[in-house]
Amino acid sequence: MATTRILEWLGRLYIWLLLAFLYLPIIIMALMSFNVSPFYQLPFEWTTEWYGSLWQNDQLIAATRNSIEIAIITTVICVVLGSAASLALFRYEFRGKKFLQALLFPPIAIPWLITGTAMLIFFFGVGIGRGLFAILLGHVALALPYVIVVVSARLQTFAPELEEAARSLGANQWQVTRRVTLPWIMPGVIAGGLFAFAVSFDQFVVSYFLATPGQTTLPVEIYAAIRKGFTPEINAVSTIIIVVSMALMLLTARFFKFGGEK
Amino acid sequence: MAVQGAVASRSGLRSALPLLAPAYLWLTVAIFLPLSAMVFFSFMTDLPLSGKAWAFTLGNYAAFFSQSLYLTLLLASLRLGLEVTLWCIVIGYPAAYVLAKVLKGRSREAIFLLVILPFWSNGLVRIFSWAMVLREGGILDTALNAVLPFKINIDLMYSYPAVIIGLVHSYVPYMVLTCYLTLQAIDDSLIEAGRSLGATRLQVLKRVIIPLSMPGLVAGAALIFVPVVGSFMEPRILGGRTGTFYGTVIEDQFVAVFNWPLGAALSFILLAVVLVILAIASPVLRRAT
User: Fold this and answer.
1) What is the CATH number of domain A56-255?
2) What is the pLDDT of residues B245-271, one digit of tens each?
3) CATH, domain range B67-288
4) In Å, what is the CA distance from B197 to each residue of B101, B192, B203, B211?
5) Considering only CA atoms, which of B226, B264, B286 is closest in space to residue A110?
6) Domains in chain A: boundaries
7) A124 contacts in B (CB within 8 Å)?
8) What is the ipTM, given to two decimal places?
9) What is the widest separation between alpha-carbon atoms in chain A?
């Protein structure tokens, strides 16, 4: 018994060490964004100067606006197309359904480097070229499978008899969908939408290959700045990004259980 | 229900198509056609744009096999993927075990969320945050020198270990997540039965727990190995001059050298390697589901 207690205690300690490993760099980055020294010199002196100078940086602001706009449009398109596809995959039986479901995995499993360069080649070849529209095309395609998977998972808990009942009470297909099915899958749709937003907002690799100097997103801009040299402004904007994306995921977790626990 | 099911199945595709078409059309235009185009381009001498002359060639693939540099870099990337995956197993599996079998109730839920949360935050920014920790005169250096009585210099920045640390930090939540899901599904009574039959803790771990959680380990390993082999941003930021890998060479072909056909060939070779790895992993995964 004593050994069990000690082992359990060691286990807990271990988890906290892992959490320290995961969070310390992020916390340090956040702290340094409030430090006076632009070269991250200690001792620490408090300032909000870098956040202030963010507002003077037109390039960063434009990139941020692009990122937010693309993420919102991606979310809307993915939620609509993804929910429709999930419903079809759930409701109907037809040949080739397994194949269509399997097709959702290449976009998730293939490294973004390959997908991104392939998009660059193809979009160039067909005349779409690079820029914000190409980035949007890519983001939707990357996020769509996630939305379909999440909404489909929610649909698994749905009882088709409910649709039958509504239909037998005289509701037409649209009414059944709007009044019965959609309310039930709403948590999945919201979680899927938040996923889509996060995938788009955090996406770097694919955006990087599709961006042009004038039409770029925030992560691409940050990468360029990091490679040019460190600036505390990048610290500040990175801190904002990480807070936003973590808040988004906490929100998603309210609608979607990751652990699969009932 | 059975009769209706049959009816539904006959008219199934016709009813499903309008709902499915937009999503799959989008995936086709933005994923499947580009991947096909990439294969096509990899056999060309030049881009068929702006009236440039082009012809079919095997030269891009010949370049891969004739210049040992590319093969060396591919092997280096595979080794990087292997090392990062191993570290993720070593670090992530025990954590998943503690989460699934030691912690209970609300604290388990909260800590689980905390572990997988960073994984959904911006990967680029997290890699960047390590730059601040690892550089000389950075936080690690300063902190250790403040504690230790003797002077040491920690300058891990722009080194192979820095790349490993950054990548493990990025991907270890994946391993915790997949292992946790399979470990959680193991019935506690199996473990108790093994123990009461006289097996030691280590024997239970070796004979019961690890075999039953194998699908989670394999899934996690595949999910980590594949993107790490194709990584380029992490080695660039944390590896500096030592951070030349297969991924960074592909990046160069597209953004610096502008030899797209060669880049396409290199990408396609990577894709083939990735598909082989996923194919090897899939029987184990299918057995799990």
Assistant:
1) 1.10.3720.10
2) 999 999 999 999 889 999 999 999 999
3) 1.10.3720.10
4) 20, 8, 11, 18
5) B226
6) 56-255
7) 47, 49
8) 0.88
9) 73
